UniProtKB/TrEMBL annotation:
Signal peptide: none annotated. Gene3D superfamilies: Ankyrin repeat-containing domain. This is Uncharacterized protein. The keyword Metal-binding does not apply. ANK repeats lie at residues 34-62, 90-122, 123-155, 189-221, 222-254, 255-287, 288-319. Keywords: ANK repeat, Repeat. It comes from Mytilus coruscus (Sea mussel). InterPro entries: Ankyrin_rpt, Ankyrin_rpt-contain_sf. PROSITE patterns: ANK_REP_REGION (PS50297), ANK_REPEAT (PS50088).
Amino acid sequence: MVFSLLMSMMDRGFCDIVSILLTKEINFDQNHWDGETPLFKAVRRGYTDVVELLLKKNANPNFPACLTWLNRIKKYIWSTTAIQIFAIRTKLSPLYVAAWEGNIEILGLLLSYNSDPNICNTDKQSVLHLATCNGRADIVKLLLQHKINSNACDVQHQSSLYIVSFKRCTEIVKLLLDYNSDPNICNKENKSPLFVASSKGYTEIVKLLLDHNSDPNICYKVNKSPLFAAFSNGHTEIVKLLLEHNSDPNICDKENKSLLFVASSKGRIEIVKLLLDHNSDPNISDKDIKSPLFAASSKGHTEIVRLLLEHNSDPNICN
């Protein structure tokens, strides 16, 4: 009875009455019919004082939201918020909800009472994943200071560093790297943070990743390297950067086409020069035994033909 009254008063925002009810003997680590614990509800509604009172009374900061009365879900779902539905479905912790709501004060409070920052939801998303997705550098920093695992991956095997590299959150990329996030963790398609940053033309992020030992030769599942991705999307500055950091220009795709072959075929003389200056092999042929020289000749790129011949391209390779 007291528990139901407590939850009802919290729903209505009567925090003074809630404070009085909290003096009673109540099991705080139980789910109401709506799936929420008192602490979960207080966190979601942003009642900082109530959160602190509950934590002082030893409410478990890691106890998740969980629907216990399944037959009520259809009735309940019409009056519920997106976060409540998601929380119940994926068994979120109060800490996750505080991050979702962006309430850094409550987040800090929960962490000070030993809330585990490494608990993930059923999609293997950690609180850090959520903070990075939302671009909240302040929350990311707080979590890193509390020793959250910065290399945890979600069901798509995306690390937090991958997410912020993709979303161009440069400040958070730097934060994660400063706290020893591994830049070489790839997603399910074997795309690294460097691959996505190179593909999208995020020069500053590419620099940061390379300065923190990101491997420039990890290839996407179709055997395309970050160098290939940067070239394909017209990011010449990043092509230069990658070559300066020992990116291998002789990695070929699944058709055995080297980057020099593709650049020669497309008439990209500035890229051809760059590649040849960084030891690109002019005699690697594709699966049809066509060389870069053949590709340039067949497209009428005379200057590139001359350049390739000056760099010992073999004119006698036949397809």
